[in-house]
Structure formats: structure tokens, C-alpha cells
Specification:
The complex is a heterodimer of chains A (about 250) and B (about 375). Chain A is about 40% helix and about 30% strand. Chain A is an alpha/beta fold. A six-stranded mixed beta sheet of chain A has the order 6-9-10-3-11-12, with helices on both faces. Chain A has a four-stranded antiparallel beta sheet with strand order 2-1-4-5. The longest helix of chain A has 15 residues, at about 95-110. In chain A, about 45% of the residues are buried. Helices cover about 20% and strands about 40% of the residues of chain B. In chain B, strands 2, 3, 5, 6, 8, 10, 12, 14, 16 and 18 form a ten-stranded mixed beta sheet that branches. Chain B starts with a helix and ends in a 7-residue tail after the last helix. The chains are: A alpha/beta (about 250), B alpha/beta (about 375). The interface of A and B includes residues 91, 97, 99, 103 and 116 of A.
């Protein structure tokens, strides 16, 4: 479903991704782990289409389309969703206004009928339960005055509403206490399905106890240096990145 | 040639009450004239073009109906108050001063409507709000004025409360002065909305003259194309325990220019004052211009004060966040600009809020989609 080949990308003239290859078939959850500065967040931004991230080489295809040629909103229409590491607060716009606008923009672009207020509210109430998001938070301004955990729950709530084909979770576990981590993970697991690919980017193994991946990749210096099953994450935690890389080379 | 020689003769209608005002105005105009490029308070707003045009007053452009509780009264003499060149011009050429007095229970908002015309006009109103009286005043400036030089004098007696909504949408030239004098424990809340125009300038001067008086001044302005708006705000804390808040925000697009100058002065007599000033601007095009200058003058130690001004582009992080959720760029921009305007407008009476929102939306990208953003959600 997602195929990344020899991807090179720079930020402010500095090369961060240096020949990254990755393939995620539909229905699978892949985790990417790596030390700080290895290029994890850069990868997520390049996939979502953020300005300022220059792709100098390589290609990314998703559902048969050239992803890199598209604007961020076109990627969303195609089914790409990025759960932000640092969700942005937007005072003056309610969460519900924001989400209905997003959902209906996507539906319109796909030639589907837009949801009216009643249909939308029914869906929102149902999906909010997945991450135990309070009704009061849905009405508040987007992420404005939300705690760290509430922001991350709100990201997964949005994901549940927009039903992407490719979900990229950028350090969704950072800053969460164990209860919040469980709730967010439950939400993510409920959204696993045969038509959906997920890319879980994390710094810590503990998230993968809750969202169990099919494949774990190790990202170092802008490349995937090793891949394995879920046990690889445990080894990374116990032995460290350098050890795992050395073994992979041997 | 001095300005006085080019000035039209005094208006046909010349009530005796205007006598002192006119004398003072003529004196000032003779010595100071109209602003030039060197006049500090008019540095960014060029009005020299007016000197070559007819300043001859035409028929009145002011219309109003009085709700019960507000009456029109006569005053034997009216005093001049510290103002500026256009307030003097107004005093020299206004037909009369419309003196309105609100007292006791007022049934509904007092509405004043000014329709800018092809001739110059000098509407002049004095509004007195009696002790412990509450009033909402709505002023609307419309049409396309050759020059509307409007003066509003507000006197709030002890414990009076005024909510003042001023919607400035004159497409021509509007130069206005609002001079507010506040008695003990009175409250003045202003919502100024200025949308475009060839030139719309407002001088808003508030005197906290009685102990415990407070004012909350909020404003929003927008320019595009060749439009020019200018807000000069001045708050004088002359009595103790005065509180003033200023929140002004604006957006500048196209080749539009927005000027914001704000002073909060805490005089020696103004102990225990609290004064806050905030001005934020969104610069939406590289050819647009914003000049902002909030400043504080404090002659006293026991003061809580803050001030700040920013000029910046739309936040890229926010824009990307919205677009990554599938919202098209233009609509995403519209949503963010609209949200930016929200704070200074918050707290306005609801019916007026939707009027202002409607006028504002017309100026934003993707306005149709923006208009039904909140429809039916609860």
C-alpha cells in the first residue's frame, strides 16, 4: 500500500533522510524506532507534505499514486493521516467545526455526499467513545487549553472520524502517563483493519506493548538499518541501538 | 494662504450654544491648520489631498431614532475639549451639536447611522449617560463619503455603563473622534470594527476621571487593495483605581495600510491603576503595511501595566495542521484569519455580532464555506 524507495530529504539544506526504503502492505502495523535526530519526525512530515522538507531523491507511492507530487490536503483526501507529535492549538475554532469542515472537505473532494449536522454529531459521539473524549472537549477550541494527554486523545479521535487508509502516528506516546497511554492505544487498536496501514513512530518500546506491531524497523542516520518482528523492540530497549546495528552489519 | 481663508463660511444654522466652540476652533485652525506630513500623530496617514478639495458642508448625513429613555436636550453653551485638527474643523463647520441624554430605564439600543455622501459633512453628537443608567450605543458608518468628519462626545456620569459598538464601513473618507469622559465607577466598553475604506481614521480618547472607572476597548480592523485605516487610542488615568484594557487586532492584505497608535497614561493622580494594551496584526501580503506603536507613560509607582504588539504572517504550523486534515488551503486560511478576529469581537451583543461577522466574512477567503462552519453544531 505504501512504498518508499531510496528517499532522501533535507531540511534547511541539511540532509536528514539518506536513502530510506520501506514498504507497508495494507492491514499491517509497522513501527519505526530510532534515536533522537535519526529522522523519525522528518519522515512523518515528508509523508504528510509539510513545506520546508525538500525531497532531493527517491519516490513514495501510496495506493498507486505519486504521493510526493500532492499537496497536504490532497494526501488527506487519498487517505493519509498524521497524528502530530505536537498538535497545534487553534483558539477561536471549535473542535467540532474543525472536524466537520475536514470531514466534509474530504468527502466533497471524493465526490461523496457531505454529512449534515445531525449525521455528523451522531458519528462524533460514537467515535469519541473510542478514546473516552468528553463531550465538553469536542466543543472547545481545537486543542486550546488541552492537557498533553487530551491533545493526543484528540488526535486519535480525529483519526477515528476521518478513517484514513494510512495512519502515521508520530510519537503519540510521548508525554503520556500509563493510563492515557492505554486509552490512546485502545483507540488505535480499535482502528486496526485489513484495509488500513499504520506507521507507528516511537522512541520507547513501551508503546509497542499496547500497540503490537507486525514489523519493527530501526531508523538510524536517515536509513532503515534493521528490521524484525516485535521482539526487536525489546532488544533495542535492552541492548541499545549501536549494538543492534553492529549485529545487523555482521 | 492660510486655511482660514479657504474655509467655508460658518454654516447657515448657527445656534448660540456653538459660539464658544467655534471661537476656539477657529483659533486653533488659524494657528495649527490641518496636519501635514510632519505632524507626528498623522505621520502615516496623509491627508494633504484634502487641502485642495471643497470642505463646504452639505446636508446632514446623520440619522437616528430615539428609544424611550433617551431624549434630545438643549444646552445653552457647549465647551470645547482637547481634540485635534479635524475636531476643530468639525467644531467650526458643524450645523449644530445633537445633545442626547439617556436616563433611567432605556428600552433598547440607541442607533446612530451616518451615510457618507459626495459632499463633506460634520456630524457632531454629545451623549450624556446619567447616573447609574445603562445604555447600548450602536454607530454605523456607511456609504462613500467625500469627507465625513464626525465628532462624538460621551459623558458617563457616576455609575453609568455604556456599551458602544461602532461599525466603520465608509468606503470613502471618514475621520472620527470619540471623546469619552468617565465619572466615578462608570464603565465604558467599546467594540470598534473598521473594514477597509479609502481612509478611515478614528481617534478614541478616554478619560478615567472618576475613581474606580473602567474601560474595555476592543477593536478589529481589516485592509485590502489600497485601503487605509488608522486608530489612535489614548487612555488617561486621572483618578485612582482606574482600569483600562485595550485589545486591538487587524489584518492587512493587498497594498492596504493599517496604523495603530495607543497611549495609556497614568497621571500622578492615578494611583492603583491597571492598564493593559495589546495589538496584534496579521500581515497577509508582502505589499501591505502595518505601523503599530503601543506606549505607556507612568507617573506613579502603584500601577499594574502591560503592553505588547506583534506583526506576523499566518502561523505555518496551524495552516499545515488544517491542510493535513483535508481542508483546502484557501478555506484553511479563512478559518485562521476568522479565528484571529474572534477575540476582539467576543462579548459583543449577539445580533450585532452576526452583522459584523457577515461583513467580515465577505472579506475573507472561501467566505461561503466559512459562513456555514458552525451551522447546527451543538
Amino acid at each position: 500500500m505504501l512504498k518508499i524507495e531510496n528517499l532522501h530529504a533535507s531540511v534547511d539544506g541539511k540532509e536528514i533522510l539518506r536513502g530510506l526504503d520501506l514498504e507497508i502492505p495494507a492491514g499491517e502495523v509497522h513501527a519505526i524506532m530510532g534515536p533522537n535526530g535519526s529522522g523519525k519526525s522528518t519522515l512523518s512530515y515528508v509523508l504528510a507534505g509539510r513545506e520546508g522538507y525538500e525531497v532531493t531523491e527517491g519516490k513514495v507511492t501510496f495506493a498507486g499514486e505519486d504521493l510526493l507530487a500532492m499537496d497536504p490536503e490532497e494526501r488527506a483526501v487519498l487517505g493519509v493521516f498524521l497524528a502530530f507529535q505536537y498538535p497545534v492549538a487553534i483558539p477561536g475554532v471549535s473542535n467540532l467545526q474543525f472536524l466537520r469542515t475536514a470531514l466534509n472537505s474530504i468527502r466533497k473532494a471524493r465526490g461523496e455526499e457531505e454529512l449534515n449536522a445531525a449525521q455528523f454529531m451522531k458519528l462524533a459521539r460514537e467515535r469519541a467513545k473510542l478514546v473516552e473524549l468528553k463531550a465538553e472537549l469536542m466543543k472547545r477550541a481545537v486543542n486550546h487549553g488541552f492537557s498533553g494527554g487530551e491533545k493526543k486523545r484528540n488526535e486519535i479521535f480525529q483519526m477515528a472520524m476521518l478513517e484514513p487508509k494510512l495512519a502515521i502516528l508520530d510519537e503519540t506516546d510521548s508525554g503520556l502517563d500509563i493510563d492515557a497511554l492505554k486509552i490512546v492505544s485502545q483507540g488505535v487498536n480499535a482502528l486496526r483493519g485489513p484495509d488500513r496501514a499504520m506507521l507507528v513512530i516511537t522512541h520507547y518500546q513501551r508503546l509497542l506493548d499496547h500497540i503490537v506491531p507486525d514489523v519493527v524497523h530501526v531508523l538510524m542516520d536517515g536509513r532503515i538499518v534493521h528490521s524484525g518482528d516485535k521482539d526487536l523492540a525489546l532488544r533495542l530497549e535492552n541492548e541499545g541501538y549501536e549494538q543492534v546495528r553492529a549485529e545487523a552489519r555482521a | 494662504m492660510s486655511l482660514l481663508e479657504t474655509l467655508p463660511a460658518a454654516p447657515r444654522n448657527d445656534p448660540p450654544a456653538m459660539k464658544a466652540l467655534r471661537a476656539e476652533a477657529h483659533e486653533r485652525l488659524a494657528s495649527e491648520g490641518l496636519p501635514t506630513k510632519k505632524t507626528e500623530a498623522w505621520r502615516f496617514t496623509n491627508v494633504t489631498a484634502l487641502t485642495g478639495e471643497s470642505l463646504e458642508p452639505g446636508p446632514s448625513t446623520l440619522a437616528f431614532e430615539l428609544p424611550s429613555g433617551v431624549t434630545r436636550v438643549e444646552r445653552e453653551s457647549l465647551e470645547a475639549f482637547a481634540a485635534g485638527p479635524f475636531a476643530s474643523l468639525n467644531a467650526a463647520l458643524a450645523d449644530e451639536t445633537v445633545v442626547l441624554r439617556a436616563e433611567g430605564a432605556v428600552s433598547e439600543a440607541l442607533s446612530l447611522r451616518y451615510t457618507g455622501a459626495a459632499h463633506a459633512s460634520y456630524p457632531r453628537v454629545r451623549l450624556e449617560v446619567a447616573k447609574h443608567t445603562e445604555l447600548t450605543l450602536v454607530e454605523r458608518f456607511e456609504g462613500e463619503g467625500a469627507l465625513t468628519d464626525a465628532v462624538l462626545e460621551v459623558v458617563l456620569e457616576d455609575g453609568a455603563r455604556l456599551t458602544h459598538v461602532r461599525i466603520q464601513r465608509d468606503e470613502g473618507r471618514l475621520i472620527g473622534l470619540v471623546n469619552v469622559s468617565q465619572g466615578r465607577d462608570s464603565h465604558y466598553g467599546a467594540h470598534v470594527v473598521t473594514l477597509g475604506g479609502q481612509l478611515q481614521r478614528l481617534d478614541l480618547k478616554v478619560g478615567l476621571d472618576g475613581t474606580g472607572a473602567s474601560c474595555d476597548l476592543r477593536g478589529f480592523y481589516a485592509v485590502d487593495g489600497q485601503e487605509h485605516v488608522d486608530h489612535h487610542v489614548k487612555v488617561d488615568h486621572r483618578a485612582t483605581h482606574g482600569t483600562s484594557h485595550q485589545v486591538f487586532r487587524g489584518i492587512a492584505d493587498g497594498k492596504g495600510v493599517a496604523v495603530f497608535d495607543s497611549q495609556a497614561i497614568v497621571h500622578r493622580t492615578g494611583a492603583h491603576a491597571e492598564a493593559h494594551q495589546e495589538n496584534r496584526n496579521l500581515l497577509l501580503s508582502a505589499s501591505a503595511g502595518v505601523h503599530t506603536k503601543p506606549h505607556l507613560e507612568i507617573d506613579h509607582d502603584e500601577v499594574i501595566a502591560s503592553h505588547g504588539a506583534t506583526v506576523g504572517a499566518l502561523d505555518e504550523d496551524s495552516l499545515f495542521y488544517l491542510r493535513s486534515r483535508g481542508i483546502p488551503t484557501e478555506l484553511a486560511r479563512g478559518i485562521l484569519i476568522h479565528a484571529f478576529a474572534h477575540e476582539p469581537l467576543a462579548g459583543m451583543p449577539e445580533a450585532l455580532m452576526s452583522e459584523v461577522e457577515g461583513a467580515l466574512l465577505e472579506r475573507l477567503p472561501a467566505s461561503d464555506a466559512l459562513a456555514d462552519l458552525g451551522e447546527g453544531l451543538s
